[in-house]
Amino acid sequence: MASFEEADGTLVRLCPRGRLTETISKLANDHEITSLVGFEVEITFCRRSSPDAGDTFTPLDSSHAWSTMTDEQLADAMPSMVMICEALADAGIYIQQFHSEAGQGQYEFVLPPSPPVEAIDTLYQARQIIQQMARRAGLRATCHPSPFPPVGTACHANISLSSGDASAREEKQMSFFAGVLSHLPALCAFTLPEEVSYVRVADDHWTSGTWVAWGTQNREVPVRRVAGTDGTTERWEVRCLDGMPNMYLAMFAVFAAGLQGLNDGTEMRLNDCQSNPSQLSAVDRIDLGIETKIPTSLSQSLEALEADAGLIEVLGTEVVDHYIGMKKAEQAMLNEMDDKTRQIWLMERY
Ligand code: GLU
Ligand code: MG
What is the 3-class SS of the chain, one letter each residue? Predict the structure, then answer.
């Protein structure tokens, strides 16, 4: 939750938080766009099994209901959730919505919209509070994208861009998201930054599907346009995003791609997809302009990044080279572990 500066106060080009700040200023100064981001923090609460049973995690609740709660959840999980929400409120973080998500032990805390850098500062603070309060209750609260497969755990970012009247706004939003979607495979290297992140690249799991597409009220695409109750509350939900990234870096990459879309006046070639792209015929998909698949592994995303000269130009080769080098070294380290050790290692840390 800090930025790096050179001794003379200039921005360190490798600082993700500083580069995001710079990108948001360019959106405001060059395109008169005010941006807000609201994160949906999905968390899986786990118990650690007894040492006799081996070092492993089990979900907090065994009888679990989505959007409502079973007796077990009300009795065993709710006291911790109340404690967490009170601790967040004490820190000035007011949860906009809270609900029981689809997976066992999975709960969602929706943070209010804020300017992007502030939203990420709050995201990290909120996550630390949630994880620390859980620890006091003897639990592990993890952002791991799939602690208990096949259910996914995400950290969706709801982006709203406001600028001028409705038609100016519409045009700018379209160029911004045309930029984002045209670089999406490469952006996944930042937004889905671990091998396990790709468990969520699946159809029919509400996790954002497998096709590069956007759609109004569509949960099976990586970018969902969410119509608000009035023109001002509309937002775009980036769904191909989990709790594993450096979120400053992930949002820097997304906003830089959007900014490039605006600078170049990139045309949106994808039409609004309001159904599940995997259930459309090939012809119907092509009619909507849907032709590209989301990478299904980190190595594919990193290759897409290495091949995306346009994105490398806006992020800077120094950022991309360091990032790719770091990811390769990290994956080599993780690949030395057996599957169970790696799963526990990641669940302990994220
Ligand atoms: N847990 C789902 C995911 O991994 C998201 C469910 C939702 O909030 O739409 O993407
Ligand atoms: Mg959710």
Answer: CCCCECCCCCECCCCHHHHHHHHHHHHHHHHCCEEEEEEEEEEEEEEECCHHHCCCEEECCCCCCCCCCCHHHHHHHHHHHHHHHHHHHHCCCCCCEEEECCCCCEEEEECCCECHHHHHHHHHHHHHHHHHHHHHCCEEEECCCCCCCCCCCCCCEEEEEECCCHHHHHHHHHHHHHHHHHCHHHHHHHHCCCHHHHHHCCCCCCCCCCECCEEECCCCCCEEEECCCCHHHCEEEECCCCCCCCHHHHHHHHHHHHHHHHHHCCCCCCCCCCCCHHHCCHHHHHHCCCCCECCCCHHHHHHHHHHCHHHHHHHCHHHHHHHHHHHHHHHHHHHCCCHHHHHHHHHHHC
Is the whole-model pTM more than 0.85?
yes
Best mutation site among 153, 235, 240, 294 for ligand 1 pocket (most ligand atoms within 8 Å of CB): 153
Predicted local distance difference test score (pLDDT) of residue 48: 85
Domain 39-153: state its class: alpha beta
The yes-or-no answer to whether 39-153 and 159-335 have a common fold is yes
CA of 40 to the centre of ligand 2 (A): 7
Domains of the chain by residue range: 39-153, 159-335
What is the average per-residue pLDDT within 319-333? Answer: 97
pLDDT digit string, tens, across residues 217-250: 999 999 999 987 665 668 999 999 999 999 999 9
**pLDDT per residue as tens digits for the range 99-125:** 999 999 999 999 999 999 999 999 999
**Ligand 1: which atom is nearest the Cα of residue 207?**
10
CATH code for the structural domain at 159-335: 3.30.590.10
Atom 10 (ligand 1): residue with closest C-alpha? 207
